[in-house]
Write a structure and sequence with these properties.
5 helices, seven-stranded mixed beta sheet, BirA Bifunctional Protein, domain 2, 253 residues, 2 domains, alpha+beta
Length: 253
């Protein structure tokens, strides 16, 4: 069963000059029972959040930061961040890759990040739906150098010099809604082949946050990362779920 996603006209669109985090705001609203379809855009975030609790600061000059909140009822939630990333990457332009599980890369530098959170929502036809908050942050123009970044930053104007926050949102929003409907209907399996063409880590030596290491071998049909790890004299294919570890390329094999 799918809910059927709302049309663009059904969304409440809000642009805030400043907020701590668009994701945090939509989650606060959801906990208060407000789960109407919402596109919340911030000109400036003071406490934006990435995966693993990392900060994502932004301003109207150099970034596009927004969160999309809507009710979803997929058969499985596995692979949603990869489906969203695939949609956004293909909308923004050629040469953009996906670094599992939720970053967009260009020339081995971070262009954008995705953070997905969910909250309980009212049952639909006896089924338990959830309010999904899909947060996306995209570097539009060059940002001041940040020595704390694990991965150097890229920005969209390197790829398409005429890009702006407004034009980027216009390019990605409707395809993203269409892809979310497809994810709700068919899950990550519908995005498996598309993701494979964008996979930045495939056949790359990686180190997992739990200390294990190996070579990335793509993902399975749920979106879990597959890593060949040395174990004695044999290779073991390790399945890594997005909530278990973070991944970074290893400098040497």
């Amino acid at each position: 069963m799918t809910l059927g996603l709302p049309s663009l006209a059904a969304f409440s669109v809000e642009i805030l000059p400043e907020i701590d985090s668009t994701n945090s705001e939509l989650m606060r609203r959801a906990r208060a029972g407000r789960t109407e379809p919402t596109l919340l855009i911030a000109e400036r975030q003071t406490a934006g959040r990435g995966r693993m609790g990392r900060d994502w600061q932004s301003s109207a000059v150099d970034s596009l930061t927004f969160s999309l909140g809507l009710n979803l009822l997929p058969t499985s939630w596995e692979g949603l961040s990869l489906a969203v990333g695939t949609s956004v990457a293909q909308s923004l332009g050629a040469g953009i890759a996906l670094k599992w599980p939720n970053d967009l890369w260009w020339q081995s530098r971070k262009l954008a990040g995705i953070l997905i959170e969910t909250a309980s929502a009212a049952p639909a036809g006896g089924n338990s739906t959830r309010f999904a908050v899909i947060g996306i942050g995209i570097n539009i123009a060059a940002r001041p150098a940040d020595s704390d970044l694990r991965t150097p930053a890229a920005w969209l104007q390197e790829i398409s010099p005429a890009s702006s926050a407004q034009s980027a949102l216009a390019r990605l929003f409707l395809p993203l809604l269409t892809d979310l409907l497809e994810f709700e209907r068919a899950g990550f399996a519908a995005f498996f082949a598309r993701f494979a063409t964008l996979d930045a880590l495939r056949d790359t030596a990686v180190v997992l946050s739990d200390g294990q290491f190996g070579v990335a071998r793509g993902v399975d049909h749920t979106g879990a990362l597959l890593v060949h790890t040395p174990q004695s004299k044999e290779l073991r294919l390790l399945r890594v779920a997005s909530q278990e570890v973070s991944v970074r390329p290893q400098t040497t094999v």
